[in-house]
Amino acid sequence: MEFLRFATAGSVDDGKSTLIGRLLYDTKSIFQDQLESVEATSKQMGNEYTNLALLTDGLRAEREQGITIDVAYRYFATPKRKFIIADTPGHIQYTRNMVTGASTADLVLVLVDARHGVVEQSRRHAFLASLLRIPHLVVCVNKMDLIDYDEKAFNEVKEEFRNFAMKLEIPDLSFIPISALHGDNVVERSEKMDWYKGSSLLHHLEEVHIASDRNHIDARFPVQYVIRPQNEEHHDYRGYAGTIAGGVFKPGDEVVILPSGFTSTVASIDSYDGPISEAFGPMSVTIRLTSDIDISRGDMICRPNNQPSVGQDLQAMICWMSESSALVPKMKLVLKHTTKSCRVLTTDIQYRIDVNTLHRDEKPDSLKLNEIGRVSLRSTQPLFFDEYRRNRNTGSFILVDEVTNATVAAGIIVGSG
């Protein structure tokens, strides 16, 4: 059964957690004791209704303040598809959490309060979804019950959002009027909005086509671990374990190993359940080769006629995530890209982008917490990469402070040199 990963985004109090709670509740994906706990907590808080947001706002601070702080992951399934949800915070100071939660998503839901229309955070999250190249964006115009399910107000929000989205790269954009609190157009079509002819949110999530979003052209296999069992029975076994980052691999395929440039042939592919006839992303497998070549963690197996870029100079867009420091030119950090880690030098900060106006601040002196900008990096070792627009796996990385070992930035590769 196919998996769909989606993230929710939007401004504070737009109803993200309530919407997820409603999806879990209406698809019968929560246990009776969970529901009873939420009902009891709702009464203690003085709510006249069951506050479904409590199903996702798990931290005590989140419940006390009525906001989402950290990224909450939830899982549910229908007969058609399995889902992993990342509920991301709405506050501006949690932009980094939004980037983290949405980085692996196939689709993002941006919630807009029908009473307030498109606000700064709506534009911020649309820009981030575009930057992260999330293929599908669904705008849920929420709280339609508070404006008497007015079609005119929905169309105004739709028009305003479309005008901003035209400046971005969003391949698939949809709009759905909903009431997360009452369940209108969430799982079932609402009779109160008979003017809306589209599908319910759940039906859209079940039917949206994501198979073609995967990169099945560029074969990429970053080696994570070399398997050599130390026993008599398997003394001649040598396999290379990892997660396929793109393309398709089959036994008999001719491959090249980077950085050595040696070529070989795939002898077999082993999975947890035994040998398989083909493997594609994001499967975790062990590949065996016909040749005995010195291969180690951080090397990459690919096809001879379709190789990634190899280089030490990167052009990247990064989101700075550290509260205790800022990114400045000549700063040294550790870069983690696929299975490889090496030191990098920030050679230049080219511009910082205002995600609300899309204005570029040329040559800033630094990037601070939650700021996004384009930087030039030089690594101490060659990296095997593709541009992020071509492959999200081999085109993304994180930066780590080598003293504290804290992750200080997430980045996407936009070019080399």
Structural account:
The protein has 417 residues and is α+β, with helices and mostly antiparallel strands. The protein has 3 domains: 3-212, Rossmann fold (3-Layer(aba) Sandwich); 220-302, Translation factors (Elongation Factor Tu (Ef-tu), domain 3); 309-416, Translation factors (Elongation Factor Tu (Ef-tu), domain 3). It is built from 7 helices and 23 strands. The protein has helices spanning 16-26, 32-44, 60-65, 95-102, 120-131, 151-165, 201-207; strands at residues 3-10, 72-77, 82-87, 107-113, 136-142, 172-177, 220-222, 225-227, 239-243, 248-249, 254-258, 263-271, 274-276, 279-280, 284-289, 300-302, 309-320, 332-337, 340-353, 360-362, 372-385, 396-400, 407-416. Strands 7, 8, 9, 11, 12, 13, 15 and 16 form an 8-stranded antiparallel sheet that branches. Strands 2-3-1-4-5-6 form a 6-stranded mixed sheet, with helices on both faces. Strands 17-21-19-18-22-23 form a 6-stranded antiparallel beta barrel. Strand 19 (340-353) and strand 20 (360-362) form a beta hairpin. The longest helix has 15 residues, at 151-165. The chain is globular and about 70 Å long.
